[in-house]
């Protein structure tokens, strides 16, 4: 039986995709979709194509803008309008600072009748651009939409899994950026393998604590978008968030690091939102709190390490 007859999302034929956001990740995803022979148009605010031109006829709209661009871009897409059947995919890893909600929640609020799919995983774009294999996760309130996006992007070099916890998938990719800054500090100070293992393990505990408070499933954080992305970004100098931490450990001021950084380090804004949220709800996230103080220039990297090591002793849970 042809499974396409059962699904509102036919999978075997090339489709028209509009990618909004022409940064490195948007371009990499365009390449992956192009490899599958989909027709891809990229809209970026400095490009020649207008947004209505990019969106025309697209059955999948993928947002790859950085967090600060999500709200303005959602509004622009709303002004253009979308066909009811268009599936929205978001790959942004961040938190909205005013509403303290995720990018997919912003898209869903603006397009309540549309299927919104989150795509996140250990996906350092430079490695994927070199043709190296990678895996990722897609998740949605609408499982059929997630399966369709899985089929659209799956290839011999990009293995796509589905997951039924979109919030957990999105928060995994977002929260690990804060720990990637901490990991960069740890490596920049040459604190060793034991310290790094402790940092990542306790960091994952903090991700689960805050993520489950938000309503995500704990097990999602042990998957590709949680532990997987944590391992990738906390161990790779290709990660911009890791680079920020590494250079903070060399006592460089944040403004100077950001001046030379290629692309966006979302963990910086995420840290601020996260720590505010954790304080409001009395959720202990000591590592993220030290990252926040460090980013604000209130403590030195060595003081952050001391503060963490000298916390009250307690059970591991
Ligand atoms: N680069 C990577 O390896 C990965 C990145 N991500 C996430 O994807 C998102 C994008 O990342 P990158 O492409 O690396 O960042 P980038 O900094 O290279 O690109 C960001 C894009 O957003 C656009 N943008 C920002 N504000 C805008 C606005 N107001 N209106 C229109 N466009 C706006 C910029 O023009 C730029 O094209 C981030 O949230 C990042 O965490 C996720 C997985 C992998
Ligand atoms: O999220 C990423 C890989 O999955 C990219 O990490 P950075 O944003 O820290 O470069």
TrEMBL record:
Enzyme Commission number, as recorded: 1.1.1.94
Reaction catalyzed: sn-glycerol 3-phosphate + NADP(+) = dihydroxyacetone phosphate + NADPH + H(+); sn-glycerol 3-phosphate + NAD(+) = dihydroxyacetone phosphate + NADH + H(+)
InterPro entries to which the protein is assigned, alphabetical: 6-PGluconate_DH-like_C_sf, 6PGD_dom2, G3P_DH_NAD-dep, G3P_DH_NAD-dep_C, G3P_DH_NAD-dep_N, NAD(P)-bd_dom_sf
Signal peptide coordinates: none
Location relative to the cell: Cytoplasm
Pathway assigned in UniProt: Membrane lipid metabolism; glycerophospholipid metabolism
Domain Glycerol-3-phosphate dehydrogenase NAD-dependent N-terminal: 17-48, 51-145
Enzyme class at the top of the EC tree: oxidoreductase
Superkingdom of origin: Bacteria
Main location: cytoplasm
Residue span, Glycerol-3-phosphate dehydrogenase NAD-dependent C-terminal domain: 165-305
UniProt GO MF annotations: glycerol-3-phosphate dehydrogenase [NAD(P)+] activity
KW Amino-acid biosynthesis (keyword) present: no
Catalytic residues as annotated in Swiss-Prot or TrEMBL: 176 (proton acceptor)
Binding site for sn-glycerol 3-phosphate: 93, 121, 176, 229, 239-241
Keyword entries, A-Z: Cytoplasm, Lipid biosynthesis, Lipid metabolism, NAD, NADP, Nucleotide-binding, Oxidoreductase, Phospholipid biosynthesis, Phospholipid metabolism
Residues noted as binding NADPH in the record, renumbered to the chain: 25, 45-46, 93, 125, 240, 266
Family under the similarity heading: Belongs to the NAD-dependent glycerol-3-phosphate dehydrogenase family.
Function in brief: Catalyzes the reduction of the glycolytic intermediate dihydroxyacetone phosphate (DHAP) to sn-glycerol 3-phosphate (G3P), the key precursor for phospholipid synthesis.
Protein name: Glycerol-3-phosphate dehydrogenase [NAD(P)+]
Source species of the chain: Roseofilum halophilum BLCC-M91
Gene name of the record: gpsA
């Amino acid at each position: 039986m042809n499974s396409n007859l059962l699904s509102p999302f036919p999978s075997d034929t090339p489709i028209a995709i509009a990618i909004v956001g022409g940064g490195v990740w948007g371009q990499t995803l365009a390449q992956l979709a192009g490899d599958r022979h989909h027709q891809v148009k990229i809209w970026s605010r400095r490009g020649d194509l207008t947004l209505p031109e990019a969106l025309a006829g697209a059955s999948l709209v993928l947002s790859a803008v950085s967090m600060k661009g999500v709200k303005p871009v959602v509004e622009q897409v709303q002004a253009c309008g979308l066909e009811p059947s268009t599936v929205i995919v978001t790959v942004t890893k961040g938190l909205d600072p005013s509403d303290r909600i995720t990018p997919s929640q912003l898209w869903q609020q603006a397009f309540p009748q549309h299927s919104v799919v989150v795509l996140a995983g250990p996906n350092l774009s430079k490695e994927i651009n070199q043709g190296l294999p990678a895996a990722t996760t897609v998740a949605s309130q609408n499982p059929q939409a997630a399966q369709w996006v899985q089929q659209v992007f799956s290839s011999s070099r990009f293995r796509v899994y589905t997951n039924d916890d979109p919030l957990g998938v999105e928060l995994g990719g977002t929260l690990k950026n804060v720990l990637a800054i901490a990991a960069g500090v740890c490596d920049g100070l040459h604190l060793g393998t034991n310290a790094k293992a402790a940092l990542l393990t306790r960091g994952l505990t903090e991700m689960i604590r805050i993520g489950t408070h938000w309503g995500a499933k704990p097990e999602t954080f042990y998957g590709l978008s949680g532990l997987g992305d944590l391992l990738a970004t906390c161990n790779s100098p290709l990660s911009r968030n890791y680079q920020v931490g590494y250079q903070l450990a060399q006592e460089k001021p944040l403004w100077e690091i950001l001046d030379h950084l290629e692309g966006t380090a979302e963990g910086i804004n995420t840290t601020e939102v996260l720590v505010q949220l954790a304080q409001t709800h009395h959720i202990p996230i000591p590592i993220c709190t030290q990252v926040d103080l460090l980013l604000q220039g209130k403590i030195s990297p060595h003081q952050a390490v001391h503060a963490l090591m000298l916390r009250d002793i307690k059970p591991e849970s």
